[in-house]
Amino acid sequence: MATGMAPAAPLTPAVFAILLSLVEGDKHGYLIMKDALAPGGGGVRLGPGTLYGSLDRMMRDGLVEESGISDDERRRYYRLTRLGRKTLAAELERLNAAMAGARSLGLLPHKGRA
Q: What is the pLDDT of residues 52-91, one digit of tens each?
């Protein structure tokens, strides 16, 4: 994929979890892995190979970049790019539409009802 073009949805669980994590600000790999594992981060267990392989592809695709922050020479910090934010927003819209469809089919409770 050429840099600057949004990846086609749906995003992989790993990419989605990484983008969600980085919305809060610059983070290093271990913090991204912790965020991804939390239910609000997708509940995705990211091993180092998956995390750093995904981050490398995401940097090539222009979704994230190294931030240049360093509190330890062994840690690399990452941040979302404008394209990364747009990509996450598009994926959230896609998921929201899917949830609305599931609700209309009676597969999920409607908002406001248990």
A: 999 999 999 999 999 987 777 778 999 999 999 999 999 9
Task: Give the SS3 label for residue 28.
Answer: strand
In angstroms, the first-to-last Cα distance of the chain is 43
Structure tokens at 93: 């819209």
Give the Cα separation of 89 and 100 in Å (integer): 16
Identify the CA nearest to 78 among candidates 55, 98, 97. Answer: 55
Residue 24 class from Cβ within 10 Å (0-12 exposed, 13-18 middle, 19+ buried)?
A: exposed
Answer whether 101's CB lies under 8 Å from 110's CB: no
Tokens encoding 5:
């073009």
pTM confidence score: 0.85
